[in-house]
From TrEMBL:
SUPFAM superfamilies, sorted: ALDH-like
Compositionally biased tracts (Polar residues): 1-10
Keywords from the named record: Oxidoreductase
Disordered: region residues: 1-34
All residue ranges annotated as the Aldehyde dehydrogenase domain in the record: 14-458
A Pfam family: Aldedh
CDD domains: ALDH (cd07078)
Protein name: Aldehyde dehydrogenase family protein
Length: 474
């Protein structure tokens, strides 16, 4: 089993060549790391690890502050690269870079105050715990919000005293290569080493000795491969993987408002978000009005300029999205709007609403990762909650309800890392969640990620008895 990941358009064995999903032109050409580059990257990070671990946390935090300022000066450059490679609309691309920089600043502040605990032991002794860096972190990051996600993992790893080898997705190698280069201009040599390549490069990294942590955001297949390898290498695994997030729409909410929430969740970034809405369970009492409003929301987005509703990242993903829609139609679903791959240049796909959806359809059982809102009518909130919970993924879920009791039940019963009530996106800064099932394991962000990046030593100290001599106590 190898690292499963789609490949970009590659015309040169020595380079990663990415085409612009808007017009099909060449977006970037990035040198592919050689096997020697991979080996040297891990060696450099391993060599730098002891000194970086001994660096004072305050100094590490100060360097991250400097790195954030350096990235801020290049934010538009990174956003433009992201847009050219993945089709992310310009405003969202810049927002993602700015969010990543903000996360880096948060970790710069949190790292120096990350501490152990005093423990209560016997009288006359002292007990405490001390966090230590794990060593070398292999960071494997995705394409759909590449700067924001990468800086969360990199910031937490670096500020806690680890060194990092970072490989981003081959769908945005130019963006990640530039991000790594900018960070390396501020950090000491070997603290962050970038590697550029596809699934074979990722597999080569897994064959290297001396990696202590696998930190991954991306597909479930790749996360499963990391877990498999870690059984032998004993590396610590942090993985946030695919999701199949559900929304349950209760009978007591405004259907137009609910449709706007679902549309935001299903169609933002053209559905290419780990926590996108993938399944919709709506109460029969408002299903008709809700669906009409959802169709209107979808059609408004499809008619928007490309700067507001962008393309899918590439044709491979678009074919997958279309195959899920085709499967649903063949099994009895009704296309209310969209559902057909458009002609012309680029990899655009319309915002799509499907009704008459059944539980066995791919749009209900798998992560489609496109602008698809499959709607299933339910007879009660209880039925919607039960169906939302019956899934192998466990990333997040949303309930739209005016009933506090139903909201509390959802929080208690849904087997997911994050339960959102009356808002498909949002949350307090630093909120840490543990995905479950096929969606991964470990805290992938927030303050708890500092704990994931460290090991803990418990110290027990008792005074030694005074030395005695033949002349008495000295």
């Amino acid at each position: 089993m190898t690292l499963a990941s789609p490949s970009p358009t590659a015309t040169d064995a020595d380079h990663l060549v990415v085409t612009d999903p808007v017009d099909g032109s060449i977006a970037t050409t990035t040198p592919r790391s050689t096997p020697e580059d991979v080996e040297n990257a891990v060696a450099r990070a391993r060599a730098a690890a002891p000194a970086w671990a001994r660096t004072a946390p305050a100094e590490r935090g100060a360097l991250l502050h400097a790195a954030a300022a350096h990235l801020r000066a290049h934010a538009q450059e990174l956003a433009d690269l992201n847009t050219r490679e993945t089709g992310k609309v310009p405003g969202d691309a810049l927002g993602g870079v700015e969010a990543g920089i903000g996360t880096l600043v948060q970790y710069a502040e949190l790292g120096p105050v990350h501490r152990g605990e005093a423990l209560r032991g016997q009288f006359g002794a002292a007990d405490w715990s001390v966090p230590h860096p794990r060593g070398v972190v292999l960071a494997l990051t995705p394409w759909n919000d590449p700067v924001a996600v990468a800086l969360g993992i990199l910031g937490a790893a670096i500020v806690t005293g680890n060194t990092v080898v970072h490989k981003g997705s081959e769908r945005c190698p130019g963006t990640i290569a530039r991000l790594n280069a900018l960070l390396a201009e501020v950090l000491p040599d070997g603290v962050l080493v970038g590697v550029d390549g596809d699934a074979s490069t990722g597999e080569a990294l897994l064959q290297q000795d001396g990696i202590d942590v696998y930190a991954h955001v991306g597909s479930t297949a790749t996360g499963d491969r990391l877990t498999e390898v870690a059984a032998t290498t004993r590396a610590h695994v942090i993985r946030e993987n695919g999701g199949n997030d559900a929304v349950v729409v209760d009978a007591d909410v405004d259907p137009t408002w609910a449709a706007a929430q679902v549309a935001l969740g299903a169609f933002a970034n053209t559905g290419q978000i780990c926590t996108s809405v993938e399944r919709v369970y709506v109460h029969r009492d408002l299903a008709e009005e809700f669906t009409a409003a959802l169709v209107a929301e979808a059609e408004r987005r499809t008619a928007s300029p490309a700067a507001e509703f962008g393309p899918l990242v590439d044709d491979r993903l678009r074919r997958t999205v279309q195959s899920h829609v085709d499967d649903a139609v063949q099994r009895g679903a009704t296309v209310r709007t969209g559902g057909v791959t458009p002609g012309g240049t680029g990899t655009f796909y319309p915002a799509t609403v499907l009704t008459d959806c059944a539980d066995e359809m791919l749009v209900m059982t798998e992560e489609t990762f496109g602008p698809i809102a499959p709607v299933r009518v339910v007879e009660s909130f209880d039925e919607g909650l039960r169906l939302a919970a019956a899934d192998r993924y466990g990333l997040a879920a949303t309930v739209l309800t005016g009933d506090t009791g139903n909201a509390l039940r959802a929080a208690a019963e849904l087997p997911v890392g994050t339960v959102k009530v009356n808002a498909v996106f949002g949350g307090a800064p630093g909120g840490s969640a543990q995905p479950r099932g096929a969606s991964g394991a470990g805290f992938g962000y927030g303050p708890h990620l500092l704990d994931e990046m460290t090991t803990t030593t418990v110290v027990h100290l008792e005074p030694a008895p005074a030395r005695t001599t033949s002349g008495g106590t000295r």
